[in-house]
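Anyone up for a design puzzle?
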C-alpha cells in the first residue's frame, strides 16, 4: 500500500490504537503531537507534558516516528478568542466543534500535507462513506462514543483527506487491544474539559479572561431570589452552583438577559420555560454543500449527549434555519450546536441562535 498517513497522537488510547490499526493495514504511519495551549501549562496544569510523554511512548512501542507541532497561535486566533467572545455575549459555545474544523482538520491537515501525507487520521469515533463522488460523515458503530456531532462542520475536501480507523469499533475493544499490546495508556481516562485546555475549575479559568459582572437572579415574575457573579458563568438548564436555597423543587437557569444583567430561574426540570418546540440556528454548514429538504423528517440534537429527536426543517436559507420538533426539546442553549441527521448520516447543522430565547416564553 505504502500510502503515507499522518495521525494526530494525543497520548490517549484511541489515537494509539488508530495508529496501530493503520500500520496493520500496511500504511506508512507518522505521528504528530499537537501542542495548542501555553497560557498556564505549568506545574498546576501540565496535562500536555504528560500527554506528550504518553504519545512518545506509544510511538516507540508501535515503531513509528513522531514530531511535536505547536498550533497555539492558530488555536488562540481561530478558536479561543471566539470562545471568549461568545461567553461575553452571554452564550455558551462549544469549542470542540470549532477546534476540529479549524485546528485538527485545517491547521493539522495543512501541516500533514506539507509533510507529504496522502491523508490524515485521528482517533475520533465516526465513519466515512463515499457515494456518487460525495463523502458522507456517518455515526460510529459505538453509539455511546459517537463523535460525529463534533465533526459536523467538516467539508468535502477535509473528509476526502481523512481516515477514522476506529469508526467500526467499540471502546472496550480499543482498550483490550491496547492492553494486549502492552501500551501504558490502555486504561488512561478519556480526556474531558475544554478542547486542548483540559479539566480545571471552569469559573476560575474563565474569570482570568472575563471580569466579574454581578447581578440579580430572578424568577419569571420578577422576584429576586439570589445573585450571580456574571452571566458567563451560567448556562441554560444549569442546576448546580446557583446558591439558591429554600424548599420545593430544584432551581434551573431558564434565561440570561444581557440588557438587564439578570439570570432568570425556574423550579422543576419540566418547567414549561425549559421546553422549546422550535430551534433556530445560524452560521450553517452542510457537509454535502447542499441544503437539506424542507419536506423531510430528520433527526437532530441540540447537545452532545442527546438522542436524535424527530424534526422537520421549516425554513432554511444561506444564513439561518428553523427546525420544528415533534416533541419539545429541553434547555435549548444559544451558542451550542444543532446537528441534523438522516438516519446515521450527519448532514451538518449550525449554531443555536439567540432567537430561541423568545419573548413570549418569559
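Challenge accepted. My sequence:
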Amino acid at each position: 500500500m505504502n500510502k503515507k498517513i499522518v495521525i494526530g497522537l494525543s497520548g490517549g488510547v484511541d489515537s494509539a490504537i488508530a495508529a496501530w490499526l493503520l500500520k496493520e493495514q500496511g500504511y506508512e504511519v507518522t505521528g504528530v503531537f499537537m501542542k495548542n495551549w501555553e497560557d498556564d501549562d505549568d506545574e498546576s496544569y501540565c496535562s500536555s507534558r504528560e500527554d506528550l510523554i504518553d504519545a512518545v511512548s506509544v510511538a516507540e512501542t508501535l515503531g513509528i516516528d513522531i514530531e511535536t507541532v505547536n498550533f497555539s497561535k492558530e488555536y488562540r486566533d481561530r478558536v479561543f478568542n471566539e470562545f471568549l467572545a461568545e461567553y461575553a455575549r452571554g452564550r455558551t459555545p462549544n469549542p470542540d466543534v470549532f477546534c476540529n474544523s479549524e485546528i485538527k482538520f485545517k491547521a493539522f491537515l495543512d501541516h500533514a500535507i506539507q509533510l507529504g501525507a496522502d491523508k490524515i487520521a485521528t482517533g475520533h469515533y465516526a465513519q466515512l462513506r463515499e457515494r456518487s463522488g460525495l463523502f458522507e460523515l456517518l455515526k460510529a458503530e459505538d453509539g455511546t462514543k459517537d463523535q460525529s456531532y463534533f465533526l459536523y462542520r467538516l467539508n468535502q475536501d477535509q473528509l476526502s483527506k481523512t481516515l477514522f480507523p476506529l469508526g467500526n469499533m467499540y471502546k472496550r475493544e480499543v482498550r483490550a487491544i491496547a492492553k494486549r499490546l502492552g501500551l501504558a495508556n490502555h486504561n488512561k481516562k478519556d480526556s474531558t474539559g475544554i478542547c486542548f485546555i483540559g479539566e480545571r475549575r471552569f469559573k476560575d479559568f474563565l474569570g482570568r479572561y472575563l471580569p466579574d459582572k454581578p447581578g440579580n437572579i430572578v424568577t419569571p415574575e420578577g422576584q429576586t431570589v439570589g445573585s450571580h457573579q456574571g452571566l458567563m458563568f451560567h448556562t441554560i438548564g444549569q442546576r448546580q452552583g446557583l446558591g439558591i436555597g429554600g424548599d420545593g423543587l430544584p432551581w434551573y437557569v431558564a434565561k440570561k438577559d444581557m440588557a438587564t444583567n439578570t439570570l432568570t430561574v425556574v423550579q422543576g426540570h419540566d418547567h414549561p420555560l425549559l421546553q422549546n418546540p422550535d430551534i433556530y440556528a445560524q452560521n450553517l454548514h452542510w457537509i454535502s454543500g447542499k441544503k437539506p429538504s424542507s419536506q423531510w423528517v430528520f433527526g437532530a440534537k441540540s447537545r452532545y449527549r442527546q438522542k436524535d429527536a424527530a424534526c422537520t426543517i421549516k425554513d432554511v436559507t444561506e444564513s439561518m434555519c428553523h427546525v420544528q420538533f415533534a416533541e419539545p426539546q429541553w434547555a435549548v442553549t444559544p451558542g451550542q450546536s444543532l446537528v441534523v441527521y438522516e438516519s446515521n448520516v450527519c448532514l451538518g447543522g449550525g449554531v443555536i441562535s439567540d432567537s430561541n430565547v423568545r419573548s413570549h416564553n418569559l
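A detail worth pointing out: Residues 4-181 form a domain with the Rossmann fold fold (CATH 3.40.50.620).
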